Amino acid sequence: MRRNTASTHATAFIPTLIALLLATLLRTAKPRPAGRERHDALHFGGQLHEKHSARYHIVAFGDSLTEGWAIGYTEDRPYSITLQQLLDAGGYSAKVRERGKSGDTVLRGMMKRLPALLEEAQHLGLRVDWLVLMGGINDIIRHAKEVRGAVERNETLPLEYGLMAEEVWLGLQKLYGVCGRHGVKVLALTLLETGWELPKVEGERARLNDLIRGAHVRHDHVHVLDVAQDLPYPSGSSADPAVQALWDDVVHLSPAGYDRLGALVYDGLKHHLEKR
């Protein structure tokens, strides 16, 4: 039986091709540091105790989308960088500090982090004027994974286990309340679309966004910015390349996408600020 030498040579070449690709990647990208915990000094804007004479003190608070996480890039690119640049260029006396934490959820981490942050600021004599808040997508994704796992194991879940949007909404309202008690105004951002192919993720996200859009009705100090409609997820191979360039993976934006988000936040926030 004759061997197909062309096929054999092609198969033998695959490991070499993979090695070349890996070598190229290693030359062009530094490995990301292990672990996602960051000291306050490494967040954009620095630590709270650092004095700044700005008229407005703004905190960008949330998860990896606030942190500026992008898997395919060597450095984070928080939208607060662009927000600060545009505020400076627009003639606003403002100091932006970013407090994003990769993987954080509303119902667990943020419920502890935000009160601690505002209490620390109060202790230091720092008046936080605005909090830009985006959170909830990690709650929904983790919940969807748990549901899928339970279904695969043929486990029965209680009926109320499916009400994730409402649970996160209650958590967000508590965060709004914490801000209100500290005299902090909130710019609440809607959640961006995702490419997750998990049942219920997009449905729960849409339901939560509907609730967020009505936040100002219940909370006078909360203003809503619907960024979801201006940063759609590129669906299908025929998606606009310009839209695709704004995304890094199924959840995170690219550096250009984070810059776009920062511009949207600036447009939504500037109407509430006075210039120098």
From TrEMBL:
The keyword Signal applies. Gene3D superfamilies: SGNH hydrolase (3.40.50.1110). Residues 1-31 form the signal peptide. Residues 60-260 form the SGNH hydrolase-type esterase domain. It comes from the Eukaryota. Keywords: Signal. InterPro entries: Ester_Hydrolysis_Enzymes (IPR051532), SGNH_hydro (IPR013830), SGNH_hydro_sf (IPR036514). GO terms for molecular function: phosphatidylcholine lysophospholipase activity. Pfam families: Lipase_GDSL_2 (PF13472). This is SGNH hydrolase-type esterase domain-containing protein.
